[in-house]
């Protein structure tokens, strides 16, 4: 199994003020699949994503990626793990405003010895004609495409997406989902999408629902719909 999360618990605060965010979460994900994690605000879904991404530490339990247990890694090991395995896409694009789109992508190209071809990525994501523009000169959807390209250029094994369509209108959001689907099919990238948008589950191989720090549904899906057919 590519990803295993086993009985992960996480609380913030101490004593009577402690808030339990994850309460014994366990799940698995096969390589090359798209997984959607659904839940309302405060349910623990982003905390779970951060655990998988090595951005937060569990109080107990373990997270294993491709045979490597990341819980308990020291900061240097976590940095290496994130560099070798992960790409991150967030709701807000976090691009460097005084670099061109191409230069924003190149920043991450050097993090990997097996980086993807930038020109191919620009073509795949429809950014070739905009590559010399600065982020403020292009639309939100084009900025998110650049953020996706930046995450992908180092050829990550796992792409973590935290509300990747949350700041976009419905038409642009659908375009981004079509791109994520294309990336999964073209590169075999395992993708986890955290969202509150229930429609996104319809393009996913696996669905996880979280409420109050517990998984209330963990199901495999076979009746997938193409992202281009979703009504957001």
- Mean pLDDT over all positions: 91
Helix and strand sequence: EEEHEEHEHHHEHEEE
Structural class: alpha/beta
Termini gap: 32 Å
- State the helicity in percent bands: 25-40%
Oligomeric grouping of the chains: single chain
User: What is the overall silhouette?
Assistant: globular
Give the uncertain stretches in residue-range form.
none
Number of helices: 6
Q: Radius of gyration, Cα only, in angstroms?
A: 17 Å
Topology of helices and strands:
Layout: E1 3-12, E2 19-29, E3 34-38, H1 45-52, E4 60-65, E5 68-69, H2 75-85, E6 86-90, H3 101-109, H4 118-124, H5 140-152, E7 158-162, H6 170-187, E8 190-195, E9 206-211, E10 214-220
Parallel strand pairs: 3-8, 3-9, 6-7, 7-8
Antiparallel strand pairs: 1-2, 1-4, 4-5, 9-10
Helix pairs in contact: 3-5, 5-6
Describe the structure.
The protein contains 6 helices and 10 strands; from the N terminus they run E-E-E-H-E-E-H-E-H-H-H-E-H-E-E-E. Helices cover 28% and strands 27% of the residues. The protein is an alpha/beta fold and 232 residues long. It has helices at residues 45-52, 75-85, 101-109, 118-124, 140-152, 170-187; strands at residues 3-12, 19-29, 34-38, 60-65, 68-69, 86-90, 158-162, 190-195, 206-211, 214-220. The chain is globular. The longest helix has 18 residues, at 170-187. Strands 6-7-8-3-9-10 form a 6-stranded mixed β-sheet, with helices on both faces. A 4-stranded antiparallel β-sheet has the order 2-1-4-5, covered by helices on one side. Helix 3 (101-109) runs parallel beside helix 5 (140-152). The chain starts with a strand and ends in a 12-residue tail after the last strand. The model has no long low-confidence stretch (mean pLDDT 91).
């Amino acid at each position: 199994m590519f990803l295993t999360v086993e009985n992960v618990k996480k609380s913030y605060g101490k004593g009577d003020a402690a808030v339990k965010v994850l309460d014994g979460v366990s799940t698995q994900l096969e390589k090359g699949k798209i997984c959607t994690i659904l839940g309302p605000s405060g349910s623990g879904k982003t905390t779970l994503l951060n655990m998988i991404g090595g951005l937060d530490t569990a109080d107990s339990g373990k997270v294993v990626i491709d045979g490597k247990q990341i819980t308990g890694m020291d900061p240097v090991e976590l940095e290496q793990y994130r560099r070798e395995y992960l790409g991150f896409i967030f709701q807000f694009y976090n691009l460097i405003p005084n670099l061109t789109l191409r230069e924003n992508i190149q920043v991450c190209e050097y993090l990997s010895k097996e980086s993807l071809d930038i020109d191919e990525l620009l073509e795949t994501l429809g950014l070739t004609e905009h590559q010399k523009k600065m982020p403020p000169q292009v639309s939100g959807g084009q900025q998110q495409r650049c953020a996706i390209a930046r995450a992908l250029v180092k050829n990550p094994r796992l792409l973590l997406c935290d509300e990747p369509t949350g700041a976009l209108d419905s038409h642009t959001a659908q375009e981004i989902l079509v791109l994520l689907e294309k990336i999964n099919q073209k590169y075999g990238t395992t993708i986890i999408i955290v969202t509150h948008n229930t429609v996104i589950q319809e393009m996913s191989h696996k669905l996880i629902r979280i409420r109050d720090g517990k998984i209330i549904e963990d199901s495999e899906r076979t009746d997938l719909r193409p992202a281009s057919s979703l009504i957001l």
